[in-house]
Amino acid sequence: MKKTLKKTWIKPCLGLILVLILAAIFVLADAHPALALGKTRKIDYSFSSLPGSDFSNQNLAGSTFTATDLRGSNFHGANLVDSILSQTVFFLRRLERC
To answer: Is this structure's pTM higher than 0.85?
Structure first.
């Protein structure tokens, strides 16, 4: 009885080990260093308060403005290609009493 238990557990364990070895080979074969900065200057303005800032005619390609307060800021002529602008406040709301 003990011999049959050993035989039934050996094949699945060897199969699992072979799959893990092949997975490790595929993961490590595609490994390459990550490039933190490319040709563009990427700046992270996340969670910043920059009301009234002047970003006119600046190269902001690839920059991040996540959850940033940019009320009244000037972006005229700025390069915003591939920039992240999620949850960013751009407009200044003026409430006046009636």
So the answer is: no
